[in-house]
Write a structure and sequence with these properties.
The structure holds two protein chains of two kinds. Chain A is mainly β. In chain A, strands 2, 4, 5, 6, 9, 10 and 11 form a seven-stranded mixed sheet that branches. In chain A, strands 1-3-8-7 form a four-stranded antiparallel sheet, with no helix packed on it. In chain A, a hairpin with a 5-residue loop joins strand 7 and strand 8. Chain A is globular, with a radius of gyration of 13 Å. By secondary structure, chain B is mainly beta. Chain B contains no helices and eleven strands. Chain B starts with a strand and ends with a strand. Classes of the chains: A mainly beta, B mainly beta.
Chain lengths: 113, 112
Amino acid sequence: NAGVTQTPKFQVLKTGQSMTLQCAQDMNHNSMYWYRQDPGMGLRLIYYSASEGTTDKGEVPNGYNVSRLNKREFSLRLESAAPSQTSVYFCASSTTGTTGELFFGEGSRLTVL
Amino acid sequence: QQQVKQSPQSLIVQKGGISIINCAYENTAFDYFPWYQQFPGKGPALLIAIRPDVSEKKEGRFTISFNKSAKQFSLHIMDSQPGDSATYFCAASMGGTYKYIFGTGTRLKVLA
């Protein structure tokens, strides 16, 4: 039982390069999320998708775009990476809205030089 | 209004001791307060959660105490074990939205 799978686990980019973080869940969850984790900042919501076909901004959406490809998959794209986007990115999913338990992937560590 | 303030930033406890982590919030619309546990290299995982209609919830060695009037809640880990060494995050959310607000985390180290 895979749960939430993120790829890649590690990535190094140069400033201005683009990349997409992939996330897939096999729990038939409706809602999916992208968070970033930075030292001393906790987890901050970038974008979320309440259900297939919908996406909305979180606390820190600038510099990111998302696509809810289908019920299983939710991708995060950095169009022009900046050093401030160096972080660990977590994808999560849940069955219902705010009261649903969040199931997290193992994270993707991104370094932008 | 949207922040959840967590303290301490780090905590060292002897094996068998009690670990206490505190969180405070401002937005009275929050109605769900979970705690997540994260081990190095892993994603956070739900540990225990509480709603504001109860003042305490206990699951094994883990207890959440909730003070609605003070807008504070805390995690107590009884008989702390080295295996409890992890980072703990409190969070809050409100009905009808999908935006969990997390605290900044507490790194707990339990000495053997």
